[in-house]
Amino acid sequence: MDQIGRAVLNAAFAVHKTLGPGLLETVYEACLAEELRKSGLSVERQVGIPVTYGEVRVDVGYRLDLLVERVVIVEVKAIDALASIHAAQVLTYLRFSGVRLGYLINFNSVLLKDGLRRIVL
């Protein structure tokens, strides 16, 4: 899992170095997925996450941006600044998916390291 996490970070830095800040989230998501696939990893985009409420499964439209090797979630942002609600979003995805490691990446940061959050459940 940590090795895949490192691959996610390396790919994110490569995408940010090439494109820089200022584009739409969908562009960064597609390019990050491509970069990860080039490194030999399986990547799923826009994966639906159902919510279980008691005995009922509710499909309410939660979609995580990237699921890498089925063990790492990546939530892509292109916003002015990350807020605590964005980390809460990733924590929710981790909880409902059963995945333990997630990354919140804001590509709209001048220095990508300032827009990275590693979240472990």
Can you tell me about this structure?
With 121 residues, the protein is of the alpha+beta class. The chain has one domain: Trna Endonuclease, Chain: A, domain 1 (3-Layer(aba) Sandwich), CATH 3.40.1350. It has a 5-stranded mixed sheet with strand order 1-2-3-4-5, with helices on both faces. Strand 3, helix 3 and strand 4 form a beta-alpha-beta unit. The chain is globular. The chain starts with a helix and ends with a strand. The mean pLDDT is 95.
**What is the overall pLDDT average?**
95
CATH fold category name: Trna Endonuclease, Chain: A, domain 1
Roughly how much helix do the residues carry, as a percent range? Answer: 25-40%
What's the alpha carbon Rg, rounded to whole Å? 14 Å
What percent strand?
25-35%
**What does the overall shape look like?**
globular
Tell me the span between the first and last alpha carbons: 13 Å
Give the name of the CATH architecture: 3-Layer(aba) Sandwich
Structural class: alpha+beta
In total, how many domains does the architecture comprise? 1
Order of helices and strands: HHEEEHEE
Count of alpha and pi helical runs: 3
Low-confidence stretches: none
Main beta sheet: 5 strands, mixed
Number of strands: 5
User: If strands are numbered along the chain, what order do they take across the biggest sheet?
Assistant: 1-2-3-4-5
CATH class: Alpha Beta
Pfam family, one: PDDEXK_3
Organism: Brevundimonas aurifodinae
Protein name: GxxExxY protein
